[in-house]
Amino acid sequence: MADEVTHLKELLLSILDERDRRYEERHSSTQEALASAFKSAEKAGDKTEAALSEYKAASNEWRGTLNDIVSKTLPRADYEREHKHLEERLATEIKRLDQNNATLAASITKLDGEKTGRLSTQELFLKNLPALIVSLIVIISAIVGLAYAIRK
After folding, report:
1. Residue ranges of the alpha helices (H) in 73-120?
2. By the 8 A CB rule, do 127 and 119 touch?
3. What pTM value is reported for the model?
4. Domain check: are 107 and 53 in the same one?
5. Is residue 69 domain-shared with residue 86, that is, in the same domain?
6. Which of 21, 86, 102, 147 is buried most, with the most CB atoms less than 10 Å from its CB?
7. How far apart are CA 121 and CA 101, in angstroms?
8. Under 8 Å between Cβ of 76 and 122
9. Which domain holds residue 38?
């Protein structure tokens, strides 16, 4: 009977040793899996950080571009105010030029109507040349002023 107890004891000890070995194997494989998962999580975190950093840089660049656009563009109300002012100025100059042209036309008619015929076409042109030059200068300055205001 002592042999049977010894045999049972040895059998029980071998079963316990086998189970202990299996538990150790499970524990070590679990530790390896946890270490692998931790490394993967660290890599994913690093990639996420890099992507977030790139996103923030691109976002800041986009904000800077928008701020540049906003600061360099003319507000609509300012444009309309300046445009209206230029239109009024241009209308005034056109009216004045029309009056000058009417005066010139009246002078030409008067000169043509005179029976004396002393002034030739060249003389008439030379006589009215200063008024023509002033008219052209006013038109050109109005166009340049309009272009400058639109460019702003």
Report:
1. 76-113
2. yes
3. 0.36
4. no
5. no
6. 86
7. 17
8. no
9. 1-73
